[in-house]
Amino acid sequence: MTGSYAGYAQDTVPHPVAAAVTKDTAAARTLRGVTIFSDRTNSVTPVQSLSGEALQKMNSLSVADAVRFFSGVQLKDYGGVGGLKTLNVRSMGTNHVGVFYDGIQLGNAQNGTVDLGRFSLDNMEQIDLYNAQKGVVLQPAKGFASASSIYLQSRKPTFKEGESMHGKVGFKTGSFGLINPSVRVEQKLNDRISAVVSSEWTHADGRYKFRYTNGTYDTTAVRENADIDAWRVEGGLYGVLRDSSTWQAKAYYYNSDRGLPGPVVSNKFYNGQRQWDRNFFFQTSYSKKIGTRYSMLLNAKYMRDYVRYLDTSMITVNGAFINRFKQNEYYISSANQYKITSFWDVGLSADFQVNNMTAVNLDHFAIPTRYTTLAALATQVHLGRVDIQGNMLTTIVNETARAYTAGKDYYAYTPTILASWQPFASPDLRVRAFYKNIFRMPTFNDMYYTTVGNTNLKPEYTKQYDAGFSYTHNGNGFLQFFSLQADGYYSHVKNKIVAAPGKLFRWQMQNLGSVEIYGVDAGVQLSPRLIKTVQTDFSVKYTYQKALDMTNPAEANYKDQIAYAPVHSGSFIGHASWNKWEVNYSFIYVGERYFLGVNIPEYYMQPWYTSDLSLSTSFIFNKKLTRLTGEVNNVFNQHYDVVISYPMPGRYYRVTATINL
Amino acid sequence: MTRTFNIYLVVLVALAIFAGACRKGPQIVPPVETPVADPDSLTNGFYLLNEGNMGMNLATLDYFDRSTGTYKRNIYSEVNPGATKEMGDVGNDIQIYGGKLYAVINMSDKVEVMDVHSARRIGQISIRNCRYITFYKGKAYVSSYAAAQGDTNTGEGFIAEVDTATLQVLRKVEVGRQPEEMAIVGDRMYVANSGGYSPPNYDRTVSVVDMNTFTEAKRIDVAINLHRMKADQYGDIYVTSRGDYYDIPSKLYVIDTKQDIVKDSFDLGASNLCIKGDSAYIYSVEWSYITSSNTVSYAIVNVKNENIVTNNFITDGSEKQIAVPYGMAIDPASGDIYVTDAKDYLLPGTLYCFDKTGKKKWSVTTGDIPAHFAFIPR
């Protein structure tokens, strides 16, 4: 049973395959109960996945909540429904994580980060986190260009025999004044084209209690100005042409209005800043196989992003302080793969991207435009049980500015080598290793932001070495599924650009220098059949990580753990389904950290650990599959900060109802 | 036996790991004491206010106990464990008046008022976006960036008059935009206006406030983005302009308060300013976007003759150890020179003590962004 949807999760072709191919077994699966895990046994690089099945069962609202359960990651979370949530993999920094939505990277040239809190799980089919990169040859050059990548795969339309339209409506509510209705409609337009429209509205007052104490004072207050009102709508067309090539087109729009609650400091628990976002993109891809040897994948995207920031506590000569930022991104990509022999593939990918940005009310802003050209030559060799992939990526960055000084042009060649070996006849066990050298460019904020930007910033380089293994076994007896993964790694970050938090996107930029990171990511997932009628799944993940500042031997932070990196962290998920009932328990642990780079008591932050519980039931109501879920999150009401002075919610509740139409 | 022992060991180790993994009870971070100098029971010590990074609630108070020669880092939390969320966010000024110690905590919208000898909290003065404090005839005067007239005007700031006994704001006078330091000559207060919220449209005036009527009498046009301000003993006021960080450099101006005119200026990129007797000590850190680097100098201006005496008052070469000078004070008794190094703003800073000839005596680790001094009078 596991295999059935592990199968569709395992598309080694990095583009969404066409609608018509997959059969709808979703309803059946929900009722029958299967393991929530999906495996990718033949991945060359370390990968962690959460399937739609698992996502549905976890106590998560957004992608950000879900990715916390991966090992080797830290989620920087400013708290609440509307708080910024960004992902950092193996302490190399958020900017080194490529986030791909349906195969194409989500970019933000202004700050280089993607707020994962804005991507609802409602519409997700699969989330995969790859260290190094997705281990395939046929992918856009950008797929080779990040130190690690997270792939968000939205749900594709699927139809039963003879069915041409169906949909799903959902409603979530709970603490923080959350109101979150969603709707999804899938329509088969003809034999070759199907369409999907998905939309949701998220509204929350964002109020929650938080508590700070030092043992003598003990203050409980309510988080204010953390409200959010966000609307997402996206539509996609999925098609198969006569020559069996496939295409996809997608439009996405996100609009939000939120309060920025700011840090909670002595005598000031309230901040009045607000932010408005409008993000639109259109992306399309086309995939074709010519003969048995040649495959191609074409991608194109246009993105427009608008941010308005208001601070009523700063009164300028023109009234309250307002910033407006506008960004455009244009992107085209061509990826090609040619099978020279049965065991040898080569690939060539070329991407071209233009990013520009304007800002209103930002003194001395340069109005930059960045042209990025990426070309990747990749190859893959299967020699018996050994798989080797290698690629050389060429990056050329040209920058111009309409006013003031532009950053310097830059080019670099960066290699990656991935290898995996299957030591035994059974494919269950694989040993793997990789080396990757890659960099990230300074963002527009790093370079041009008034009084903090620095056009002389150098790109930030990472070198990664990783060795590990994965063992995955599907069975029919007591253990339905078992997987064990462990990787040891060493990474070196050079010319690290560090942002000291001021206000939201106001930072002090500096090349911190050098960080050495070594650690172990390990995970066990198993689905034992403890009782015949009860399906259970367990996942345990653990991360050990030392991320040491190696910049200056004379300085107090030399060889100290860098800010916000815990040495120990981990997660546990336990899930059981019986008949039409399911219960899920999840636990996250993040060990002690320091909010600045010197490991002294003044900068110490307590470990935090939260337990989340949920109970769901599915039933047929009026011939419609209906599902109800109740959640209690942070059951033990622990008060903690992920980011210093940004309190996280204590215990909170959520109720979800969905009806398949 | 061995087996039982092993099981116990495993349980013990597991417990230890679990205990280590759990949260400690809430704790107060104790001060760190470092001996730096020989005990001197004849002179009083001083307080040093560390600004702390914005948003981190990391303003801390250090105390140099001269009677034991000990530097005590981070004393506030231990002395005042009941103060909610400790001292606050971004310490911007510290002064002593009468028996009280006043620390202006900018992003916490308050002036923290403490006992001068124990640093025990007495109360607070609530003033939004407060910047600097000065005193005149038994009252405290606090400058504030906050708009005096609400949200409808063009953002003129104000000076609040505070009763030092009740800690209540008595009156406010509107001055220029985003006022910084103040200086009092005779019965008039001079206020440096920055206009820092509206670059490149900075304010370029000094407000003159008549202290008898507590009204703004006039404004003197000086230069953009004014910041530091000190009066000398000859009726002149020294005021610094930060420049625009791009094309207009930082400069030092002299105002003649008899005529209220700018009578002199120096091409010194002045970041901080202290006057003792006839010597104005000035250091400058100037960031140039053209060269993308900082230029640092340490100058003394003779305020009587109005000429530059030296461009480097640190004479033993130890200024090379200082990455970013951020605070400065001259010991009123000995004439020792104190300079702080804020480093990259993310590391604990360093306080350097030089004798009056500019030779290093000692240095010590401080809190985050060490910046402002208050010497306890004898």
From TrEMBL, chain A:
Record keyword Heme present: no
Any one biological process term the GO annotation gives: siderophore transmembrane transport
Domain TonB-dependent receptor plug span(s) in chain numbering: 43-135
GO cellular component: cell outer membrane
Keyword Transport in record: yes
Molecular-function GO terms, alphabetical: siderophore uptake transmembrane transporter activity
Topology of the protein relative to the lipid bilayer: Multi-pass membrane protein
UniProt-listed InterPro entries: Beta-barrel_TonB, Beta-barrel_TonB_sf, Plug_dom, Plug_dom_sf, TonB-dep_rcpt-like
Gene3D superfamilies: TonB-dependent receptor, beta-barrel domain, TonB-dependent receptor, plug domain
Family to which the UniProt record says this protein belongs: Belongs to the TonB-dependent receptor family.
Name of the protein this chain belongs to: TonB-dependent receptor
UniProtKB/TrEMBL annotation, chain B:
Family matches, as InterPro entries: DUF5074 (IPR031815), Host-pathogen_enzymatic-act (IPR051200), Quino_amine_DH_bsu (IPR011044), WD40/YVTN_repeat-like_dom_sf (IPR015943)
Source taxon at top rank: Bacteria
PROSITE patterns noted in UniProt: PROKAR_LIPOPROTEIN
Protein known as: YncE family protein
Organism from which the protein derives: Chitinophaga tropicalis
